[in-house]
From TrEMBL:
It comes from the Eukaryota. PANTHER family: PHOSDUCIN-LIKE PROTEIN. Residues 112-126, 134-146 have a biased composition (Polar residues). One of its GO terms (biological process) is regulation of G protein-coupled receptor signaling pathway. Residues 82-269 form the Phosducin domain. The keyword Phosphoprotein applies. Belongs to the phosducin family. Residues 1-13 have a biased composition (Basic and acidic residues). Keywords: Phosphoprotein. Residues 1-59, 111-154 are annotated as: Disordered. This is Phosducin domain-containing protein. The keyword Transmembrane helix does not apply.
Length: 290
């Protein structure tokens, strides 16, 4: 009986798988192995990343290079209008200023001549093209058509610098302390060019009277009026006296010598064909002198 029981027990144990560890340890091992499988899958996934990362990095670098090259192609368009920066812009501004000032001088003279002819019914103003003067009052320089732009700009800048230096020198010689309009005195009778004419008429207090004489150096009557005005300028030193060459004025609607009286930039009295005798009385009656 005991032998039968032992044989049955041997058959039972021989048919079951052999365990090398405690059942609970085997359960823990199976749990760990199941946890390790996703990691191994993940490991396989990450092992395939280096190639993908290299492609992403290469694609990113390619985009950055494209953006950089695109930015490098940007440029600031060159300006072709006036008031530009740099040497060319300075030259353009100076030339524009010179043209504007010359246009202002011509408009002032033409406007006065037009008003005068409408009252005196004399022939209208005609410009003397052969004797046209520049802003400095000298005949225009002949320029050849083959001059380059750089040569023309250089020539203009030399003239412009000389004009500016002369203007700054005159300003430096003026009194540093600015006098009130009521105390400003003149006392001289000076010759001016086109620029000086505009400055004399515009750059004075509004209550200052400016007498502009249109003179002809070849006329004896004009010389007599000049002598008389020199004495009147010294005597009435609150009135400014200047003289302008008739070729610069280019006015045929008046008889030279002529006197134009300005106040606040406008003409309020004119004397065409002025005479030295009794000139002070005429100016007093027209309220040019006070």
């Amino acid at each position: 009986m005991a032998d039968l029981a032992r044989e049955e027990a041997d058959r039972y144990f021989s048919s079951r798988p052999q365990r090398s560890a405690h059942p609970e340890d085997e359960d823990d091992r199976s749990t760990h192995s199941s946890d390790d499988q996703p990691e191994s899958a993940n490991d396989n996934y990450y092992h395939s990343d280096p190639g993908t990362d290299d492609e992403d990095v290469h694609h990113h670098n390619t985009n950055m290079a494209t953006m950089t090259s695109t930015r490098n192609t940007y440029y600031i368009p060159a300006q072709t209008h006036y008031a530009n920066t740099g040497p060319k812009g300075v030259i353009a501004d100076a030339q524009s200023y010179a043209r504007a000032k010359q246009s202002t001088f011509r408009k002032r003279m033409s406007s006065f001549a037009g008003n005068l002819t409408s009252r005196m019914t004399v022939p209208s103003v005609t410009e003397k093209t052969e004797q046209r003067k520049t802003l400095s009052g000298s005949p225009p320089k002949s320029t050849s058509s083959d001059l380059s732009d750089e040569d023309a700009d250089s020539q203009f800048m030399e003239t412009w610098r000389a004009s500016r230096l002369q203007e700054l020198a005159s300003l430096s010689q003026a009194p540093q302390r600015r006098q009130s309009p009521s105390r400003r005195t003149w006392g001289t009778f000076v010759e001016v060019d086109a620029n000086g004419y505009l400055d004399a008429v515009e750059k004075v207090p509004e209550d200052t009277v400016v007498v502009v004489m249109i003179y002809d150096p070849s006329s004896s009557a004009s010389a007599e009026v000049e002598d008389e005005l020199s004495m009147l300028a010294y005597k009435h030193n609150k009135t400014r006296f200047v003289r302008l060459h008739h070729e610069i004025a280019e006015m045929q609607s008046i008889e030279v010598p002529a006197l134009l009286a300005y106040k606040a930039g406008d003409v309020f009295a004119t004397i065409s064909g002025a005479k030295a005798e009794g000139l002070e009385g005429v100016l007093l009656r027209n309220r040019v002198l006070q």
